[in-house]
């Protein structure tokens, strides 16, 4: 802890997510379920700030045969970012704060009729030592998290014409193991991972509400489908990475 200049502000984001992002949306009526595919449930709230659509998004999902660490690693590792992220046009790692904390500047593909968006954020991956037990009372094998939130940085010479979006995003993953019994070794069929993905994206500049809400309605389920399938494929033949 305290390894870099942004440790304190990172710690605050982590604590906020641990206290509110793990609240499952099914329990209260403030979240509207707007997409459901199998184990994946995607909720949103309608929120307008200064005339901009900032709808918070919360998705829960259960993915077979992967661990929390694997999910968070492939979400965090920029070496594979373009293999699963469909809306990014370019990105650059501006600074490495420690072995699991970096600062990224990225531009997204323009979606007509809005201006192109870019974002500049800190991305950190960490293991949660005393994991919050899910409401079902089941004990996870372990809990990992990736926290992405907007920061300022001098070196981000922004791509001209881009409107700066601000993000507060978190992926919290918990591994559950069902022992195979009679002393057989654990294999991937004994694993599943339960995730909560929370995204608060402020588009930074005006865009038609209908366009933004249509983008979110299409892009979030697509991203969750594509990313989870990507991790299952990427890890399928590999040793289990707890
Ligand atoms: C997956 C998705 C959902 C909603 C909107 C879009 C999208 N389409 N065209 C432009 C964007 C766009 C605009 C601004 C943003 F900050 C992000 C954005 C979304 C996700 C993340 S992340 O941290 O979850 C994954 C890393 O890129 C960061 C930024 C995406 N893509």
Can you walk me through this structure?
The chain has 242 residues and is α+β, with helices and mostly antiparallel strands. The protein has helices spanning 7-21, 68-76, 81-84, 209-235; strands at residues 32-37, 40-44, 48-49, 52-53, 57-64, 88-98, 101-108, 117-128, 142-150, 163-164, 166-177, 191-202. Strands 1, 2, 5, 6, 7, 8, 9, 10, 11 and 12 form a 10-stranded mixed β-sheet that branches. Strands 3-4 form a two-stranded antiparallel sheet. Helix 2 crosses helix 4 (209-235). Residues 85, 87-88, 108-109, 111, 117, 119, 148, 165, 167, 169, 199, 201, 215-216, 219-220, 223 line the site of ligand XAF. The ligand Cc1cccc(-c2n[nH]cc2-c2ccc(F)c(-c3ccc(S(=O)(=O)CCO)cc3)c2)n1 binds at residues 85, 87-88, 108-109, 111, 117, 119, 148, 165, 167, 169, 199, 201, 215-216, 219-220, 223.
The succession of helices and strands, N to C, reads HEEEEEHHEEEEEEEH
Average pLDDT, rounded to a whole number, is 93
Please work out how many helical segments DSSP would assign: 4
Strand content: 35-45%
Number of E-state strands:
12
What does the overall shape look like?
Answer: globular
Gyration radius over CA: 18 Å
- Approximately how much helix is present in the residues? 10-25%
Q: List bound small molecules.
A: ligand XAF
Biggest sheet descriptor: 10 strands, mixed
List low-confidence stretches.
none
Distance between the termini: 21 Å
Structural class: alpha+beta
Topology:
Blueprint: H1 7-21, E1 32-37, E2 40-44, E3 48-49, E4 52-53, E5 57-64, H2 68-76, H3 81-84, E6 88-98, E7 101-108, E8 117-128, E9 142-150, E10 163-164, E11 166-177, E12 191-202, H4 209-235
Parallel strand pairs: 8-10
Antiparallel strand pairs: 1-2, 2-5, 3-4, 5-12, 6-7, 7-8, 8-9, 9-11, 11-12
Helix pairs in contact: 2-4
Bound molecules: ligand XAF.
Ligand XAF is lined by residues 85, 87-88, 108-109, 111, 117, 119, 148, 165, 167, 169, 199, 201, 215-216, 219-220, 223.
């Amino acid at each position: 802890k305290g390894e870099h200049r942004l440790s304190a502000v990172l710690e605050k984001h982590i604590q906020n997510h641990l206290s509110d992002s793990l609240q499952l949306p099914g329990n209260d009526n403030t979240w509207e379920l707007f997409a459901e595919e199998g184990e994946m449930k995607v909720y949103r709230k309608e929120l307008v700030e200064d005339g901009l659509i900032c709808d918070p998004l919360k998705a829960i999902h259960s993915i077979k045969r992967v661990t929390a660490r694997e999910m968070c690693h492939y979400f965090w590792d920029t070496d594979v970012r373009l293999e699963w992220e469909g809306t990014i046009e370019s990105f650059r790692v501006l600074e490495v704060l420690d072995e699991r904390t970096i600062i990224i500047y990225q531009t997204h593909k323009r979606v007509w009729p809005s201006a192109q968006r870019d974002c500049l954020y800190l991305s950190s991956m960490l293991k949660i030592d005393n994991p919050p037990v899910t409401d079902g009372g089941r004990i996870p094998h372990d809990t990992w998290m990736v926290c992405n939130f907007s920061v300022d940085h001098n070196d981000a010479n922004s791509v001209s014409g881009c409107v700066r979006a601000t993000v507060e995003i978190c992926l919290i993953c918990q591994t559950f193991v069902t022992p195979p019994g009679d002393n057989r070794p654990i294999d991937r069929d004994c694993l599943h991972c339960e995730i909560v993905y929370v995204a608060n994206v402020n588009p930074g500049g005006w865009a038609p509400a209908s366009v933004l809400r249509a983008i979110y309605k299409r892009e979030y389920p697509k991203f969750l489908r594509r990313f989870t399938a990507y991790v299952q494929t990427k890890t399928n033949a590999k040793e289990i990475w707890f």
